[in-house]
Write a structure and sequence with these properties.
Length: 139
């Protein structure tokens, strides 16, 4: 009787784990190809995503420390759109945000949110900005 009960428990455990594995669907994710950006007027950030719907149009938002979200689509090359595998990559020309001090001159971590065409959040990531080291002048 103990063997039967042990076998049933083992069977339920295996079936439960198998069911959980099939039930879990990996969602979309976004990552920074350039996780640490040196701040200058020429700053660029590579942003990549995977797990999106093929052909899906994508918006990318920059979130300031006070929570203000701004669409940075105008500064992305190329315009992000998921390919047939659900992946995409783009480069954000962030120099304007650095120049206008929308990114703190001391640097820091900033959130990037990826949304669908109706601005529903899909995924997010963090990019870190670091001030350029000032060169010391020799006398």
């Amino acid at each position: 009787m103990k063997k039967v009960i042990s076998s049933l428990i083992a069977l339920f455990f295996v079936l439960g784990i198998t069911g959980i594995c099939f039930a879990v669907e990996l969602g979309a994710m976004v990552t920074m190809g350039t996780p640490l950006v040196k701040m200058s007027k020429k700053s660029e950030v590579v942003i990549m995503g995977t797990g999106f719907k093929p052909g899906q149009e994508i918006n990318v938002l920059f979130v300031s420390p006070d929570g203000l979200q701004s669409d940075i689509g105008y500064a992305l090359k190329p315009t992000p759109k998921a390919d047939k595998t659900g992946s995409w990559t783009t480069t954000w020309a962030a120099g304007r945000y650095v120049d206008r001090k929308l990114i703190d001159p001391k640097g820091g971590a900033y959130k990037i949110i990826v949304t669908d065409s109706e601005y529903n959040p899909i995924a997010h990531s963090t990019v870190f900005f670091q001030p350029e080291k000032k060169k010391k002048k020799k006398k």
